[in-house]
Amino acid sequence: MEAITSTEQLDSYVDNLKASYDAEKLSVLICFGTGCLANGARDVAEAFKQEFDKQGLKINVDIGFKTTGCHGYCENGPLVVLRPKDILYLKVRPKDVPEIVEKSIKSDEIIDRLVYKDVNTKEVISQYQEIPFYAHQKRITLRNIGHIDPTSIDDYLLCEGYKGLAKALSMDPDDVITEVEKSGLRGRGGGGFPAGRKWRSCKAVSSDVHYVMCNGDEGDPGAFMDRSIMEGDPHSVIEGMIIGGYAIGASQGYIYVRDEYPLAVKNLHSALDAARGKGFLGKGILGKNFDFDIKISRGGGAFVCGESSALMRSLEGKVGEPRAKYIRSVEKGLYDKPSVLNNVETWNNIPEIIRNGSGWYASFGTEGSKGTKVFSLVGKVNNTGLVEVPMGITIKELVENIGGGVLGGKKFKAVQTGGPSGGCIPDSKKDLPIDFDSLTGAGSMMGSGGIIVMDEETCMVDVAKYFISFLVEESCGKCAPCRDGLPRMRQILVDITEGRGKDGDIEALEELCDVLTHGALCGLGTSAANPVLSTIRYFRDEYEAHIRDKKCPAGVCKSLITYSIDPEKCTGCMLCAKKCPQQCITGEKKQAHVIDSEKCIKCGVCKDVCNFDAVRIK
Amino acid sequence: MKRKGNMELDTNRIDEIISRYERSEESLLAILQDFQREFLYVPEEGMKRLSGVLHVPESKIYAMGTFYKTLSLEPRGRHTIKICTGTACHLKGAGLILETIERELGVNRNHTTEDKRYTLESVNCVGACAMAPVVVVGEDYYGHMRPSKIMDVLNKYK
Amino acid sequence: MEKIKLKIDGKEVEGVRDQCVLDVAREAGIDIPALCYHPDVKASGGSCRVCLVEAHQDGRMKLVTSCNYPVREGLEIKTDTELVRRIRKGVLELLLARVPDSKVVQDLALKYGIEEPRFFKDEGDNYRNKCIACGLCTAVCEDVVGVSAISMCERGYEKAPGTPYKKVSDVCIGCGACAYVCPTDAIEMIDDGDTRKIWGREFKMIKCSVCGKPYIPEAQVDWIVSTKGKDRAFFDKCPDHR
After folding, report:
1. What is the pLDDT of residue B130?
2. Residue spans per domain, chain B
3. Using a CB-CB distance cutoff of 8 angstroms, which residues of chain C are in contact with residue B62?
């Protein structure tokens, strides 16, 4: 593999690639994002290979065949895209493959049962960009994911890859920073700090060594956009970091990846090797006097290591304990040297900003929040998956137009944004635009972009308890407010959800929140109050129902609910009685059954197996 | 490759794993992770040898072993069941599934069954939120899991 | 060294670069309570949160731990505002809940009006032995002594100092610096005649050839001799009779 040692050489290499690339060639792209893989995408891929073999079709000669990163439409995987018509087939099974090859590859037919059908209009849409889920999106970060083979650098180059780097290297490093400043890009990891300003302050610190780092820890439960980027388009992150290194004068970069993402680690390693092979990493990049390389560091199962100072300690080979931010990491970060730490999504946007210009990027989004954002839309929503939209879209638009509304036609209650450091936004604020400042103003925060949709069957006290329990486990233990305060907050919430709540509990929670917000050492502690305070702010009546009436209106808190069987719906099929681990359901065949609530442990199995929706929770 | 739980450790394997990485403190966590994958836990002998090679006090390496939750100081079972307790999975009933497993296997979270067949753990998000609730056994992902289905899945693993 | 001017509780004071607010305050006779900080242990501080003060600069205010907040030109510190007292009280209540037996924490909490914490206490099976997990002991062992026999183990609530595997340490030299520096006397060190017991290990003590008092563990002398090259004979006499 010959290294590319100049911009001219890069252009000519890419021109050659383009010349030999047949855009009209029939290709099958199979989504290998985690969701589709878990749904059996590997078997589907295998089925295609076998069918091609059977039909005498040679891969890459007669027909293109690629496995790609996450397409985002995870609810409907395994996903298969047919090029060049961009036909999207949903929920593909191995048994569908021979028909697909016969009708859609060897011939020109579309298989109706496999394409998107609008639930309301019944319209059938085969072209994936026209499906509402995609039509409302603006995919800048996700530009390549789903189209390229993440393990092929040529695929990346065909999509204008490393052109941003070439342009940056032709500019003065300070001008590169200016472009990033003018774009208005704000950190996509949660903090929302202006990226260009961070770079500028870091560069201004005089030192023999500067570092750039990528935060790939993605600890927020419910967020998986960074995973999809690292797995599906690793070069975009690498290119961004090389540009960043050039701009601030660093020659060493690190990508810190969560250990729970083995495929991301694998694809990043192979992308780094390929980039080195082509000369984009190493010495004298693209013929300039600029050396840069990247190392990968794996995390160890600690949410707190997503915090920047804890991440740096972890990178250094220590326990991931944060330290006070009185001296910022742009002055003293990794090994006490000036460092820039940015999130995966932030780095991914850099090549496009340089390539297309800051003005282009700033044309999207709102005044205070430029650009687009990838959200993981999950929970009680029809279209769960990854979506990318311009900042400023309202919660209502996101949940309804792209998300397809609440699952099962239930009532929308709230969205939770920002993970364990964020809060909930209720139905009454559905028209809130999603951008950094609006979310913070409403008592939540952007966080990494996880949007958890909640319906009428979600108990908001249980949600607060869930997040505080999460933080109790993830607390590093260094400071008293977090280490000793969170477990006591949890105890109060447990008491409330188990029917032992008493007057004064809400006030006690608020006081502990106060101590945490002002007294904790790091962001984990200072933002731990958000889930509790926001649920109290918008759903105080639910807290009071638990405390005063010992009731859980949403029907979730076990101690406050009873399971019973609706005699109108029960057919007496005896399935629940057979499966009940307590053997506490009685009834004759074809007669309505009864649950003995004394013995019932509310395990949920009866409701799970009933085919007649006869189990009631009150 | 034979896995050795409490039995005598092959120190050659330990040394080989250490030699895979650059000799610097930065490699500590990665080496401990590799010990974990190889031996199903981080053996004391491994930490001792690592301390000697990298000139890092044993106490600091031990502290890392107790801090990072992907590492365990006790041997894990043959099959690690990781139940995702991320927010989406929690809302969709991960709690009930966890209870079912605890009840049926007679083992609590973060513990191993007596016959060393399973270790039950919870994970804070595996990134497959569209398929919530998710249970991972070894390297196999199971989405849209339900209390009535989980034991059939687990029984497949001997 | 260049002097940095700042105000603490309205009083004009001076510090030098990298000096922390707490040290400057104490030099100026202003007392700020603190538990986990020791001026000779660089890595100490920031854990107990007792020394929180208001830091005002450029029109902004934030609560900071004075033990590791560096002095800056034009900084204004307020050590006794309503906010400071409210948060410090909350912190002390939590610390008291953790170590209800510690006289040091009891006394400090009482000064802020707390006799009994309103939340569950760590007692019985959950007894914390007066340890507030501040890390001073492990910091002194690593940075000042240079042995690193103990480290802060576990994460979160269970965080506590200890030897690897809670086994007796081969590298501990019995110097007792950790017990000396602990703000709540949580580390047990028993000197009994010829021996000292600490971290589960018994150390033979060397007696002064003049007064006969056992004053230093043999293991500590061995360590100093081998790492600093000092002559062993130096340790025949205790500091009072050298």
Report:
1. 77
2. 11-67, 79-155
3. 151, 153, 164-165
User: Model pTM?
Assistant: 0.94
Residue of chain C with shortest Cα separation from B69: C155
CA atoms of A226 and A233, how far apart (whole Å): 10
Closest by alpha carbon to A53, among A101, A94, A121, A122? Answer: A101
By three-state DSSP, how is residue A327 classified? coil
The token pair at A562 is 């009873």
Backbone angles phi, psi at A29, to 5 degrees: -115, 125
Cα separation, A400 vs A413, in Å, equals 13
- Residues 57-96 of chain B with CB under 8 A from chain C are 57-63, 66-67, 69, 73
Provide the angle, in degrees to the nearest 10, between the axes of the packed helices A173-183 and A234-248: 120
Q: Does domain B79-155 have CATH number 3.40.30.10?
A: yes
| Phi (first) and psi of residue A81, to 5 degrees | -110, 135
C151 and B59 within 8 Å at the Cβ level: the answer is yes
User: Which DSSP helix (H) or strand (E) runs through C205?
Assistant: strand C201-207
Shortest Cα distance from C221 to chain A (angstroms)? 30
Residues 6+ apart with CB under 8 A from C65: A324, A521, C45, C46, C49, C51, C52
| A 524-583 near B (Cβ less than 8 A) | 579, 581
CATH number at residue C36: 3.10.20.740
Number of H helices, E strands in chain A: 24, 19
Does C164 contact B67 at a Cβ distance shorter than 8 Å? no
Assess A473–C contact: CB distance below 8 Å, yes or no.
Answer: yes
- Domain A25-83+87-126: give its CATH architecture: 3-Layer(aba) Sandwich (3.40)
What Å distances lie between residue B135 and A231, B33, B68, CA to CA? 21, 22, 21
User: ipTM of this predicted complex?
Assistant: 0.94
Give the closest of C147, C152, C169 to B63, CB-based: C152
SS3 A412: strand
Q: How does DSSP assign C17-84, residue by residue? A: TT-BHHHHHHHTT-----SS--TT-TT--SSS-TTEEEEEETTEEEEEETTTPBP-TT-EEESS-HHH
Domain holding C115, by residue range, is 84-126
DSSP C54-73: EEEETTEEEEEETTTPBP-T
| Whether residue C146 sits in one domain with residue C236 | yes
Could you report the per-residue pLDDT of B28-55, keeping only the tens digit for each? 999 999 999 899 899 999 999 999 999 9
pLDDT of residue B8: 65
Burial of C126 (0-12, 13-18, 19+ CB in 10 A): exposed
Tell me yes or no: is domain A153-362 CATH 3.40.50.11540.
yes
Helix (H, G, I), strand (E, B) or coil at A378: strand
Alpha carbons C94 and C52: distance in angstroms, whole number: 15
Whether residue A84 has a cis bond before it, omega within 30° of 0: yes
How many domains, chain C?
3
Distance between CA atoms of A604 and A582, rounded to whole angstroms? 12
Closest Cβ–Cβ partner in C46, C64, C94 for A481? C94
Tell me the C-alpha distance between A399 and C62, whole Å. 37
Query: What percent of chain A stands above pLDDT 70?
Result: 100
Q: Which chains touch A (3 or more CB pairs under 8 A)?
A: B, C
What are A172-196's pLDDT values in tens digits?
A: 999 999 999 999 999 999 889 999 9
